Amino acid sequence: MGSTRVRIAIDAMGGDHAPGEIVAGALRAREELGVDILLVGDPQQIEAALPPKTNLGQVEIVTAQEAIAMDEEPLNAVRRKRNASINVAMDLVKQQRADAVFSAGHSGAAMASALLRLGRLPGVDRPAIGTVFPTIIAGKPVLVLDVGANVDCRPKFLEQFAVMGSAYSRYVLGTSEPKVGLLNIGEEDSKGNDASVRAHQLLRENSQINFIGNAEGRDVLSGHFDVIVCDGFVGNVLLKFAEAVGEVILQILREELPQGLHGQIGSALLKPNLKRIKQRMDHAEHGGALLLGVAGVCLIGHGSSQAPSIFNAIRMAKEAVDNQVLQRIQSQYLLERESG
Description:
Layout: E1 7-11, H1 20-33, E2 36-41, H2 43-49, E3 60-63, H3 74-80, H4 85-94, E4 100-103, H5 107-117, E5 128-133, E6 142-145, H6 155-171, E7 179-183, H7 194-205, E8 210-215, E9 227-229, H8 232-256, H9 260-281, E10 288-292, E11 297-301, H10 307-322, H11 325-339
Parallel strand pairs: 1-2, 1-4, 2-3, 4-11, 6-9, 7-8, 7-9
Antiparallel strand pairs: 5-6, 5-10, 10-11
Helix pairs in contact: 1-10, 3-5, 4-5, 6-7, 6-11, 8-9
C-alpha cells in the first residue's frame, strides 16, 4: 500500500442510517484517528451525504453497484450480488488495498462475504463474533464470544474462541494475563450439558490460555473475567438483553433525575457523572464487534449504528490492525501445532 496510515474500507450502504451516518462517522475517524477511509457504495448517494465544501480529493469513493438488504438470505445474496458493497469492501482487504473492513449492514452477509472472500485463518474451524461488554470495574471490559456467528458449537470451537479472545484481550484491550471463563449454569466443573463439560475439560487442558472456570450469568459483568466463551445462540441473547438493560437504565435516569427544581439542579451538578455513566453503558461507545478467525480485520456494527458508533468501530479496527491481532492469533495456532 502506498500510505503508511491504516486504511479502512467502509460499507457505506450498510445500515439503517446509510449512507449519511456512515459517512459522518467515517469522516470524523479520518480527522481524529488519522486513518484513510474508502467509502464503498453508490457514488451519487455518498457524495450527497458529504458535508458542503468537502474536498473530494481527500475522500476515496469505491463504486459498488448493489447493496444487500436486511431481509435477504445472506449466503445467497452474497453469491448472487457479486458487486454488492460488502463484497467490494471485502475484496479491498483481500487485494491489500485496505487493512480492515467495517459494515453496519446485514451481519450474516458480512460474515458470509468474509468467509468466501477472505477465508479462515489456518487452524480456525469457525470464526466468532466477539463484543466488548462493560463491567462494574471501571476501565475493565470483558470480551464475550461468540455473540451470533455460530448457533451450535462443538467443544473444540469454544476452545478456539478462547484462544482468539485471549489474544484480542491481551494485545488490544491491554490485559496482561486474560482470565477466561466458560458461560455455564453453575460454577462446578460437572455443570451443564455434555458439550459444556467436554469444553470445560479442553479449556482446562489448554496451556495457551488462563482458564479459571465456569462463569454464571451473574458473573459476566462482575469484572472477574476478561474473556467469556459461549455458543452464538446464548451469546446473541445475552448481547441483546444487556443492550436493553443499558437502555432501560439510561432512560430511567433521564426520566427520574429532572423531577422538580431540586432534580433539575441535581441533574446539572451530576452532568459529568451522567456522561461517564452513558459512556460505560451505551453500546454505541464500543462501536462494533470483531469477527475473529477470518483472514482479515473485519468489524460488524449494529444496523441502527449512527455516526458515534461508526467512529468507535473504526477506532476498534485501527487498534486491531496496529496491534497485529491477526498475526498474533495465527502465531498462537502455529505454536499449538508445533507443541502438538
